[in-house]
Amino acid sequence: MQDFIYYAPTQVVFGRKSEDQVASLVRQFGGSRVLVHYGGKSAVRSGLLDKICNLLTADGLTVAKLGGVVPNPRLSLVHEGIALCQREGVDFILAVGGGSVIDSAKAIAMGIANPDVEVWDYYMGRAQLTKALPVASVLTIPAAGSEMSEATVITNEDGDLKLGFGSDLLRPKFAIMNPERTMTLPPYQTAAGVTDMMMHMFERYFTKDDDMDLTTDLTEATLRRVKAAVFDVLRNPEDYRQRAQLMWGGSVAHWGLLGMGVREDWATHQLEHELSAMFDVTHGAGLAALWPSWARYVMHENLSRFVRFAVNVMDVPNDFTDPEGTAQKGIEAMERFYRAIGMPTSIKELIGRDITDDEIDEMARKCSRDGKATCGGLKVLHAEDMKAIYQMARG
Ligand code: NZQ
Ligand code: ZN
């Protein structure tokens, strides 16, 4: 079992009308001049953006606005945000949106606090973060878990590189979560979000350190809950109770609780980041396209864990005479689940055409940092393994 430190400082304010508390929360955490950062149109269309800005200004806070964050958020907008915040003397960053907006906000928070460092250097491992401006969010999509995580993932358009960086300095101060605000999500984004949150649990559950039983139990219960809730929500997008399960599930999946006592994996995520960088696909959909192939490639590293998953999460009958068959059935059941919620199970389905060998080689080259790096914990993957998994997933 791995030793661990548990640290989860984000204040969660959950429920109907929770956004009404935004101004007092910003003040509580020391903000006075706020950058409100947001995405494309959803927060404008729903009226949430105006509501948040009005609440802040009515309380005497100064507001600057920067929209335009796209899924797979871009470094160029981060640079724009840093310049804007410097001009306006911003001391607090409030993200209104999902993982992309929050990740972009975290990047801006690093950039303003460290004006002499190029922010991309943190992602490249060329600089150490020692301070950052406070960040918080009003969450509109349960998926990435960035509202409580220490991570930020940014795409540098120059070279199509999508890289993550993590520091406890980036843990958001608060997260406002009103499940009603997620009712406008299109089915595809709802499903991709559930896929992502489940994958955040998989990255911790499929491990060799399977001796922290409480973590395993909590993970299986959370997986079962969100897996069931998504069907209710797809049938009835205004189902508050089930939207709430997903919203809380997305945070529970990723703030760290479900990784206590285990060595985490994260190979599927790293493989997916190359897909997102090359084809600009939705992160959750990219994960669904890869996971079954990853699972088949690594399952013998801890077969009993895959059997346990099949039985306890996917309701596969346990055939004690054939553990491999039971494990395979669990993976097949997961593929059926992906299809049932409208997610792809191959790269071909994801990008709408055959991927070429050259593209696969390029993704494996980037994922392995020109053959110098590995990924994964359950099985350490080298460039050749990465290529093999992409080939299995091509469809
Ligand atoms: O831009 P708008 O118009 O707001 O539309 C967004 C976007 O197109 C839409 N949306 C969000 N809330 C909505 C809504 N549409 C209708 N109603 C609402 N209430 O949903 C689309 C996706 O939004 P995005 O923020 O991109 O989604 P998500 O939360 O899945 O974030 C994905 C990003 O997070 C990164 C991913 O790599 C990806 O770049 N991740 C960040 C992590 C972290 N920081 O800890 C961990 C994750 O593994 C993940 O890698
Ligand atoms: Zn993810």
Structural description of this entry:
The chain is α/β, with parallel strands linked by helices and 395 residues long. 49% of the residues lie in helices and 11% in strands. It has 16 helices and 8 strands. The chain has helices at 22-28, 42-45, 48-58, 75-88, 99-113, 120-123, 187-205, 213-235, 240-252, 267-279, 283-298, 303-312, 323-340, 347-351, 357-367, 383-393; strands at residues 11-14, 33-38, 62-66, 92-97, 135-139, 151-156, 161-166, 174-177. A 6-stranded parallel β-sheet has the order 1-8-5-4-2-3, with helices on both faces. Strands 6-7 form a two-stranded antiparallel sheet. Helix 4 crosses helix 5, helix 7 (187-205) runs antiparallel to helix 8 and helix 11 (283-298) crosses helix 16. The relative contact order is 0.11. The structure holds 5,6-dihydroxy-NADP and zinc ion. The site of 5,6-dihydroxy-NADP (NZQ) has 34 residues, from helix 2, helix 5, strand 6, helix 7 and helix 11.
